[in-house]
Amino acid sequence: MATPGRIVLNRKGMRQLLRSPEVLADLKHRAERIAAAAGSGMEVSAMVGQNRARASVITATHSARRAEATSRALTRAIDAGRG
Q1: 2: in domain
Q2: For 39, phi and psi rounded to 5 degrees?
Q3: What is the count of structural domains for the chain?
Q4: In this structure, is residue 51 part of a structural domain?
């Protein structure tokens, strides 16, 4: 039994939540906003892993890699994914 004031998470429930289609859709939407803010040549990928959903934005073209290397276009766009 848990002590008073202590939170005990339901691991199975948390895994289901973190792997849910709603969480995946939210992460993909955030990644798409980041990619749009960073400029052309950015590629979005979203998938459900063993424990949780995840999304990423990568530089897919030479010009996008150059923009990241010289002006940190992708790094500066991270705030577009918040909120």
Answers
A1: no
A2: 110, -175
A3: 1
A4: yes
In a domain, 6, yes or no: no
Residues 6 or more apart from 71 whose CB is under 8 A from it?
none
The model carries a pTM of: 0.86
* Interatomic CA distance for residues 65 and 59, integer angstroms: 5
C-beta neighbour count of 63 within 10 angstroms: 13
**Separation CA 29–CA 24 (nearest Å):** 9
User: Which residues does residue 47 pair with via DSSP β-bridges, in sequence order?
Assistant: 54
pLDDT tens sequence for the chain (83 residues): 567 889 999 999 999 999 999 999 999 999 999 999 999 999 999 999 999 999 999 999 999 999 999 999 999 999 999 97
